[in-house]
Inverse folding.
C-alpha cells in the first residue's frame, strides 16, 4: 500500500469513526466495526491510537476492541507512550492496559503501573467531579 492509499484509508476510517462518536453501540455493532477496522489494515493503527486522546468513550471502546484483536505488527511502544502521556484520561489508560495485557505484557509490573495512572480517581469520580476531569496527573 502506497502512502497516498494509506492516507486515504486513514481518512475513510476517521470519517467512519466520527459518525459513531457518542453513540451507544450494541455488542454486534462493535464487532462489525472492529471487523471493518481490522480489514482496513495497518495504516489505520495511528487513527486507532488517536482515539485515546479523545474524550469519547465510544471511540475508546472501538479502539480498544480493535487493538485487542490486532495481529502483527502490534503497536506496543505507541501504547506505552500513551500511558506516559499526562493528557490521556485515566480510564483510557486503563483500557490501554487491557490491550497490553492481551498482548502478553505483565501489567502487574510496578514499572508499568507507575506511569501516572490513578485508577482510584477513575473509579471514584467517573464524571470528574473533583475538578480533574479524571485525567492523569
Amino acid at each position: 500500500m502506497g502512502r497516498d492509499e494509506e492516507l486515504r484509508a486513514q481518512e475513510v476510517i476517521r470519517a467512519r469513526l466520527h459518525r459513531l462518536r457518542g453513540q451507544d453501540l450494541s455488542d454486534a455493532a462493535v464487532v462489525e466495526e472492529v471487523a471493518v477496522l481490522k480489514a482496513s489494515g495497518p495504516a489505520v493503527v495511528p487513527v486507532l491510537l488517536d482515539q485515546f486522546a479523545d474524550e469519547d468513550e465510544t471511540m475508546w471502546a472501538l479502539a480498544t476492541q480493535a487493538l485487542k484483536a490486532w495481529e502483527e505488527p502490534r503497536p506496543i511502544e505507541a501504547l506505552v507512550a500513551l500511558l506516559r502521556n499526562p493528557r490521556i484520561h485515566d480510564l483510557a489508560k486503563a483500557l490501554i492496559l487491557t490491550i497490553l495485557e492481551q498482548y502478553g505484557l505483565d501489567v502487574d509490573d510496578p514499572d508499568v503501573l507507575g506511569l501516572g495512572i490513578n485508577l482510584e480517581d477513575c473509579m471514584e469520580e467517573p464524571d470528574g467531579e473533583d475538578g480533574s476531569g479524571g485525567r492523569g496527573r
Notes: Residues 50 and 63 are 9 Å apart (CA to CA). The helical segments are 3-20, 27-39, 45-50, 57-68, 76-84, 90-102, 110-113, 119-124. The chain has two domains: 1-73, 74-137. The two ends are 39 Å apart (CA to CA).
